[in-house]
């Protein structure tokens, strides 16, 4: 079978498609014939040797797929050959067959396409864990999303809307603001040209913002925090800007506010039952038409490296997906 392989840290053009053996399947794993794989921002870091997992070379990048079950390990009873599934992992997605621990494999909703399924687990899983498990959002709360047109951003925007929250989409260009408005955002802010703190205060009114989903970090985190309501919550989800803010600790004290870490993959490992229930709730929301992965662009497997460039150059609105010929 063919795999996309990172054998030296570098840029997307250093990735090569080579022949590799079909992975062997452990007793608690599912072998998936991959139909589609989707990229996430951390994939752009792993190929540069910059992610927190310290992957050893060579490795196959990518952390989410959809496809058809080809074979199941002897302890797997949840799935059988021929089932349509979606799955996530730390690495190993962008290849024709991949083996995934059963706890990270989920049945694909009947009406969900392979491309949507590939783009579902990580972004929506993360956003659900952030907004529901961590922030306990409820109708009427205001939710501001930094990086709202990205993969996790769109998922958070749609989920906050599904829970009848007021949504404030914060992005880096007018084009992305228009995209978020079309996604149903109540208010948009272009943080590259507008005063973020001022505009967040305008959006939220005198009470301030209840919840901030911060996927971007850097210079945007502190002004966002300063716009929080009494007992507001800043969800620390990622640092796509490449820098990590240092927030003075008098600020959470003055607002009775919380800075909450969100680490979905570790949460899923520690609490697989809750993670599976979360995915069930997410697929039900999909079936009700409240969630819809936004596919920015699809690439054929032979051009997978171009999908990495598209994402790392900040051009994507929603998700990029790689298709395998079947
Ligand atoms: N904690 C967790 O469990 C978890 C899980 C998944 C992802 N994440 C993290 O969440 C963040 C978003 O992931 P994603 O897959 O949704 O990424 P994505 O689709 O690339 O979205 C990231 C967004 O960040 C903004 N951004 C600002 N500065 C940027 C820069 N210098 N380079 C690239 N993007 C920049 C971009 O929007 P604008 O151009 O509008 O600014 C972009 O849309 C990442 O930091 C990722 O590592 C965390």
Q: Provide the domain count.
A: 2
CATH superfamily of the largest domain: Medium-chain alcohol dehydrogenases, catalytic domain
Distinct small-molecule ligands in the complex: NADP nicotinamide-adenine-dinucleotide phosphate
CATH architectural designation of the largest domain: Alpha-Beta Complex
Low-confidence stretches: none
Order of helices and strands: EEEHEEEEHHEHEHEHEHEHEHHEHE
Please give a handful of descriptors for the protein shown.
seven-stranded mixed beta sheet; Quinone Oxidoreductase, Chain A, domain 1; binds NADP nicotinamide-adenine-dinucleotide phosphate; 326 residues; alpha/beta; globular; Rossmann fold; six-stranded parallel beta sheet
Structural overview:
- This protein has 326 residues and is α/β, with parallel strands linked by helices.
- It folds into 2 domains: 150 residues, Medium-chain alcohol dehydrogenases, catalytic domain (Quinone Oxidoreductase, Chain A, domain 1, Alpha-Beta Complex), CATH 3.90.180.10; 143 residues, 3-Layer(aba) Sandwich (Rossmann fold).
- It is built from 11 helices and 15 strands.
- The strands form 3 sheets. Strands 3, 4, 5, 6, 7, 14 and 15 form a 7-stranded mixed sheet that branches.
- Helix 7 links the parallel strand 11 and strand 12.
- Helix 3 packs across helix 10 and helix 9 crosses helix 10.
- The radius of gyration is 19 Å and the shape is globular.
- The model has no long low-confidence stretch (mean pLDDT 97).
- The structure holds NADP nicotinamide-adenine-dinucleotide phosphate.
């Amino acid at each position: 079978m063919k795999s996309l392989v990172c054998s030296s840290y570098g840029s997307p053009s250093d990735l090569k498609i080579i022949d590799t053996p079909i992975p062997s399947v452990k007793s608690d794993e599912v072998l998936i014939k991959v139909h589609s794989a989707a990229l996430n921002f951390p994939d752009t870091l792993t190929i540069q040797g910059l992610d927190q997992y310290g992957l050893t070379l060579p490795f196959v990048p990518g952390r989410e797929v959809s496809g058809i079950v080809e074979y199941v390990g002897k302890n797997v009873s949840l799935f059988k050959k021929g089932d349509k599934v979606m799955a996530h992992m730390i690495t190993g997605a962008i290849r024709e067959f991949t083996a995934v621990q059963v706890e990270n494999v989920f049945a694909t909703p009947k009406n969900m396409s392979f491309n949507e399924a590939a783009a579902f687990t990580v972004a929506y899983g993360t956003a659900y864990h952030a907004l529901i498990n961590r922030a306990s959002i409820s109708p009427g709360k205001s939710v501001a999303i930094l990086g709202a047109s990205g993969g996790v951003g769109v998922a958070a925007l749609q989920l906050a809307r599904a829970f009848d929250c007021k949504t404030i989409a914060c992005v880096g260009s007018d084009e992305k603001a228009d995209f978020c408005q079309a996604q149903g955002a109540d208010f948009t802010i272009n943080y590259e040209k507008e005063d973020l703190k001022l505009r967040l205060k305008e959006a939220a009114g005198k009470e301030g913002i209840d919840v901030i989903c911060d996927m971007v970090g850097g210079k945007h985190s502190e002004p966002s925090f300063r716009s929080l309501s009494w007992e507001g919550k800043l969800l620390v989800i990622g640092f796509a800007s490449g820098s990590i803010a240092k927030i003075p600790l008098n600020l959470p004290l003055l607002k009775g506010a919380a800075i909450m870490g969100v680490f979905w993959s570790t949460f899923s490992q520690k609490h697989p039952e809750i993670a599976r229930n979360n995915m069930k709730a997410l697929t039900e929301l999909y079936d009700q038409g409240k969630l819809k992965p936004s596919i920015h662009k699809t690439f054929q497997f032979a051009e997978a490296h171009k999908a990495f460039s598209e994402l790392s150059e900040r051009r994507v609105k929603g998700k990029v997906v790689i298709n395998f010929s079947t």
